[in-house]
Amino acid sequence: MKAIIPVAGAGTKLRPHTYTQPKALIPLAGKTILSIIIDQLEEAGITEFVFVIGYLGEKIQHYVQKKYPHLTCHFVQQNVREGTGHAILLTKKVVGDDEILIVLGDTICEGNIRELIASPVSQLGLKKVDDPRSFGVAELNDAGDIMRVVEKPQIPKSNLALVGIYKIKETDQLFDCLERNMTEHRRSHDEFQLTDALQCMIEHGVQFTPFKVSNWFDCGRKETLLETNAILLSKYKVPANPMLPYENAIIIPPVSIGEGCNIKNSIIGPNVAIGDNTVINYSIVKDSIIGSYSNLYEVVLKSSLIGSDANIRGLSQSLNIGDNTEIDLG
């Protein structure tokens, strides 16, 4: 089985960070979004991955090859972003007739992945949500099978959202449906959707059953990203790098602090993730994510997302700042 991870999106909802950093590489609970996904799948036994890259794709490729040299990794370029269906279709030659597990690169799902891989039928990850209009939605029949999937319906007939993890046994039929939709210009919300291809497969007799997802973290927006960071810091019990001396500093867990950081005269935490080689002095930081090689001096941050190579001086309360930024709030 091969795992396909589409990571070609521009991450517009997380700008300005995604101008210089792929969304999948934003730090999260001492890791990155992408490394959490890969580690989860590798632990379940998957050793071959196909990454659909595009925007800042060379950073994705460099990161994966450096961090996971022991895995078999393929990189497929999506130069024009035409939707998830188009992204998956580009992997056809690499996939062949193998079974596949598709995991979207901005979503972290928790469940029994080994059980999903071993399923004798195709499965789609589902989770009940309060407002499913922003997601693909699945409807079940009386037998509990999935009888219909629709992308972002205005009037949903179900509150079961597709959470971004798909186990497909009938790959030939999947690619046939994707090609048919492309040829016939069948778009939903102006894109070629994977959801539409799955519905095509259902209409041609392919059985899909639900895969129960215990937890689902959507990392596509600042608010949900910070919330996910807090949850995963507590869940993973990430150490704050106790080998480093922090002069006159108070660390309130859960906190993740990268290598080479210089922190003094500050209060850090709770729920803070800090990248490598960042300097923080005379500051208070809580409920935030700070990138690598940043400098914070005399700032008060809460619920903030700070990119890499940022320089901030002065006082603030909540910021959303991208890479290579310099701000003086004094």
TrEMBL record:
Residues 2-233 form the Nucleotidyl transferase domain. Keywords: Transferase. GO terms for molecular function: transferase activity. It comes from the Bacteria. PANTHER family: GLUCOSE-1-PHOSPHATE THYMIDYLTRANSFERASE (PTHR42883), THYMIDYLYLTRANSFERASE (PTHR42883:SF2). This is Glucose-1-phosphate thymidylyltransferase.
